[in-house]
């Protein structure tokens, strides 16, 4: 059948009277078009039913892959810095040990107070009192405050403060009050001093780890 005859049959076809049961008598071009349409619908249905979930799963796997790659790169960068970090940790631990050695234990507090008294005597100061206060506990250390009151000449008091600051144990000085003593050129120094001890629980935690 020629193309012109086929086109004439399509033009003369009454589309309203088409019956699917008589599709065998339809023009071959119409049958071909219907087959192509049916195949497209079948392939679309198969894609939606079979391939679409796989595509969503593929997107999820790709996202997971990107996350794992980022994690890998981050860990690789950390691993590359590991030698430097270990060296820095060793330095910090050494500094921590040095600082911890400068903190007196509770049993060493009387000896520390004796050292402060000796500095005052060496600087020709009279000691009114050196009086311990209640300790204050913190997470990693114990604060041990004590009040100091001494009398003497100005330059002797200055030398006393320098001597306390130079002690091998850490002693911080606070709340200075310097007032003249009646009837002379001597001065009275009142201040709050603090020393610190490493918290026993922190030391036990480090020993357990």
UniProtKB/TrEMBL annotation:
It holds the Pfam family PilO. The keyword Protein transport does not apply. The keyword Membrane applies. Keywords: Membrane, Transmembrane, Transmembrane helix. Gene3D superfamilies: 3.30.70.60. It comes from the Bacteria. One of its GO terms (biological process) is type IV pilus assembly. The chain crosses the membrane at residues 28-50. This is Pilus assembly protein PilO.
């Amino acid at each position: 059948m020629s193309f012109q005859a086929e086109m004439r049959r399509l033009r003369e076809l009454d589309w309203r009277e088409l019956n699917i049961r008589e599709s065998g008598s339809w023009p071959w071009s119409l049958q071909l078009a219907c087959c192509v349409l049916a195949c497209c619908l079948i392939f679309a249905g198969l894609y939606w039913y079979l391939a679409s979930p796989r595509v969503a799963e593929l997107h999820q796997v790709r996202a997971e892959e990107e996350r794992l790659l980022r994690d890998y790169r981050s860990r690789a960068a950390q691993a590359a810095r590991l030698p430097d970090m270990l060296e820095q940790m060793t330095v910090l631990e050494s500094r921590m040990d040095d600082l911890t050695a400068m903190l007196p234990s509770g049993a060493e507090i009387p000896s520390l107070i004796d050292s402060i008294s000796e500095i005052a005597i060496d600087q020709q100061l009279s000691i009114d009192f050196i009086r311990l206060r209640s300790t204050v506990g913190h997470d990693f250390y114990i604060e041990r405050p004590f009040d100091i009151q001494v009398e003497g000449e100005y330059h002797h008091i200055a030398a006393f403060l320098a001597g306390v600051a130079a002690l091998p144990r850490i002693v911080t000085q606070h709340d200075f009050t310097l007032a003249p003593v009646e009837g002379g050129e001597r001065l009275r120094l009142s201040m709050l001093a603090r020393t610190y001890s490493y918290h026993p629980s922190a030391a036990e935690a480090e020993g357990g780890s």
